[in-house]
Amino acid sequence: MIRWIYILFGWGCLSIATGWAQQTPAPTTPVKPADSLNTPAKPINMLAPSRAAFYSAVIPGLGQAYNKKYWKIPLVYAALGTTVYFYITNNNKYNDYRDAYKRRLLGFTDDEFSYLDTSRLIQAQRFYQRNRDLSALLIGVFYILNIVDANVDAHLMQYNVSDKLTLQPDLIQNDLTQRRQLGLGISFKF
């Protein structure tokens, strides 16, 4: 059902855009040939996205360097470094509470958590274990996000973004009610 809504919305936008394009008057001066036809196009490297993803998989941030997006490298290492730090911290705390609980089961009460009873030690173990597991999950998420970012960025670098295609909001007058309404204009220039 949602797919049909998207299809109908896209068809409506396209028909509105072509309707507006037909309402524009034809130019009276002869049109010069486009300069872009005379300049040679850059060759597209089809393997660039997969190469960027591979580089990011081997060393996080290397795919961003391959794409020449150097400002993203500190973000990658900040995200991965923060989650690794929390993983190590929570794992150490979990091991401390687990070792204290094991010593309590053996009958010793001379650990650093002597002020806690056994049920509190179990709760602390579960708390730090859950946070450790969440940190491990976030490490994986940020690692995969690093790879996906490098791949998508390499794909987007291959697109020709020029002024020939514009999308801008515009105020138009409704002929039926004589009120101004917000519209969306799509322009294609050849």
Could you say which structural class the secondary elements and strand pairing correspond to?
A: mainly alpha
Largest sheet: 2 strands, antiparallel
Number of strands: 2
Alpha-carbon distance between the two ends: 36 Å
Overall pLDDT confidence: 80
Shape: elongated
Continuous helix count: 5
Instruction: Give the neighbour order of strands across the main sheet.
Output: 1-2
How much helix, percentage-wise, in residues? 55-70%
Proportion of beta-strand residues: 5-15%
Residue windows where pLDDT falls under 50 for at least 5 positions: 17-29
Radius of gyration: 30 Å
Order of helices and strands: HHHHHEE
Main attributes?
190 residues; two-stranded antiparallel sheet; single chain; mainly alpha
Question: Care to describe what's here?
Answer:
This protein is 59% helix and 9% strand. By secondary structure, the protein is mostly helical. It is elongated, with a radius of gyration of 30 Å.
